[in-house]
Amino acid sequence: MKFEIDKATRDRLEMIRERGRAEARPIGLEADRLGRPIPVDDPYFAKLIERGEGRTRWSGPAPKEPKGGAGGPSQVTVMSLLFVEELAYWDRGVMVATPGVGLPEGNVLAMGTEEQKERFLGPFREPDRPRWACFAMTEPGAGSDAAAIQTSARRDGEGWVLNGAKCFIGNASRSDWILVQATLDPSKGRAAQRAFFVEQGTPGLGGFRIEKKMGLKAYESTSFTLQDCRIPASNLLGGEERYEKPSGFKSAMRVFNAGRPIVAANAVGIGRAALDEAREFAREHGLLGDARTRDRLERAARKLKMARLLCLRAGWLADRQKPNIVEASMSKAVAAEIGQEVTSLGMELLGTVGARGDHLIEKLYRDVKAMDLVEGTGQIQRVIMARKLVGLPRD
Amino acid sequence: MFDFEAGDDLDLIVETAKSFAQEELLPRLREHEAARSVDPAIRATFGEMGLAGLELPESLGGAGLGALARVLVNEELAAGDPGAALALDPLGPALYALAELGGEEALRTFALPLLDLDGARALLVCDADADLEIGEEVSGRVPWVPSDRADLLVITRGDEALVVRDGIQGSELRGSGLRAAGASELVLDAAPVLARYCDPQAAGRARARARLYTAALLVGTMRQAASASLEYALDREAFGRPIAHHQGLSFLITDMRAAVDGARLLLHEAAWRVDQGIACEAAAATAFAEAVEASTLVGPNGVQILGGHGFMQDYPLEKHMRECRALGLVQGGIDAAREDAGQALCAAPSPFPLSHVEGAG
Ligand SMILES: Cc1cc2nc3c(=O)[nH]c(=O)nc-3n(C[C@H](O)[C@H](O)[C@H](O)COP(=O)(O)OP(=O)(O)OC[C@H]3O[C@@H](n4cnc5c(N)ncnc54)[C@H](O)[C@@H]3O)c2cc1C
Questions:
Q1: Of A28, A112, A229, A330, which is the most buried if we count CB atoms within 10 A?
Q2: Does A375 participate in catalysis according to the annotation?
Q3: Where are the domains positioned within chain B?
Q4: pLDDT of residue A256
Q5: Residues 6+ positions from B82 with CB-CB distance below 8 Å
């Protein structure tokens, strides 16, 4: 067993800390105060692009170098858990607002044809300007029950015609393209679902509405509609052949699965920020000598540490390509709850200062709530675990 | 970086402990509870396995293994029967105060002789768990120890450890749990102090190791409670389906699993720290506190899942529930652990006490 972090990773974390402190934190606070997403043309985004951020993981059309050679098993997941925890510590909303392919990248890498990678990831290799992409699954009528989405895809000559409505989609209105999950036949559930690239500006894609949210205001969560939106056949993720037998739904779920420990690590990061702020507040107000205060802080630190270990274990399993369904959902269910508990304990320590609405902990208290909603609610994580552990039926 | 596997060498030891616990201890848990001791034949089998000297230095004939080995083995033994695990370990957590504060000399003088004495028990008593007057001699009362004999008493108080052997009167109690190890009240009447050690750092490590010892027993006990009740829930039917297939109960089952896993990870991380020789006191206090808290969820809900049957002694769940509770009371219990961890957190110089940049707490 081992629980240590090498020097290079620490240095990288320290860099994230410094940039988080200098940039992400203040920008996130400002977005929260103004109650609007960071504008597309904000100089912050341009600066990130100049610095080489916002790029795809896709290494280009050249053949991939073999993975997991001399250096032992891959550590990508564990590393990204460490990084996103630190990013979320400074501002989770700003983290999601950061340009890049974001959520659909895993889907495209896993399922996309070479031509699709070139077309849709290519512009993110050395982006000339801030670029975003997004993944649209959720609909006003279907969230947790992702098999019940109604957005339809109909074959029409050389292309596809999409109709439906999506909601709460991160970065949608500023995305170069949206990976839209749709169904060929709503009565056939998951097996009939496919994902389609819908490029910004395609006629029929519209009705963008940026939602007003309780927290995470730095990035946009957007609803939109697809009305007889016609796209070329080549925009079906993976191409036609891919769907001759396996189901399209599975791969979407695979991406969600990889994302659960990430969201869990976000919750840990937000919780940690609340803990540190609360401890500082207690120190400034001479409360550290109070046993009840110490108890609150102790509990917060203990639970956060536990949640972090649960995340890292889930990521470590993923890196070894071992099944992690239970562990991934566990990390998400536990960490999201703990994040909420810790920010709430922070509010208790602040007392009425927390009620003013201008303290960082109060923002964190609002922000962290979403960690128990996105990528499957706490209940859904338990459903997933229960299916594995006790064979909970699907009815 | 991170590795969540024990490794081949430890796996072998853990496997041995596991099959012993599952084959010898688990099937006889009521027998041992009633007898207030472990069957002599089983005791002999255990003796041959060499697990008693797990953490004793090789120079003293032990296996020279560390805290990680101990917590993994204790978890398995407790999954069989935590009372029996205590009964089978002549030195128990008393070893740590002797080893850390007294060193090899103390082990030679006080610990080794017990290894040749069948059924001998050294006991660790933390002054918070007792009502003792400590001077040149020790007098007072220890309300409960999980043993029917006290061949050696190691008393810890702050940075100090004292060794007492004579002048101890034991009287048997029924005991709330862990009866396979026995249960007594001890009365000390001017018991002579045979040795007295003082070393703040060593005392801290001894406290950490003792907490991990008990936390591991808790993790094993609650793991067993969680898995036994899960099995039952798949078998028992109500309203036309296995009770596990009612969502309310299935969520309880997932939460119990998460509680066990979380406590276990904190335990392993803290034990790893002990073996690395790095700061471990707060981590161990944290692991102990979490194990106790998790066990108060898992123990009673193990009974709950069995309904009325859980309350009856035909099933072991009521025993797991009692033993989870009893284990969580020692070494000052959860309050002392939380206080130690809380003090450490409040005193941490970094503004980011849990940050990986500094080497996380
Ligand atoms: C800030 C934010 C960002 C988001 N970003 C995106 C995005 O980029 N892309 C995207 O596709 N979606 C996104 N979402 C949507 C998110 O994934 C859904 O909101 C989430 O999956 C829950 O779906 P729902 O809102 O329809 O709730 P519902 O599914 O209606 O759930 C309502 C309640 O019922 C419970 N419930 C549902 N089913 C069960 C069950 N079987 N057993 C027990 N309880 C159940 C849920 O836990 C919840 O408490 C985002 C949401 C938020 C808040």
A1: A330
A2: yes
A3: 202-345
A4: 41
A5: B177, B178, B217, B218, B220, B221, B323, B327
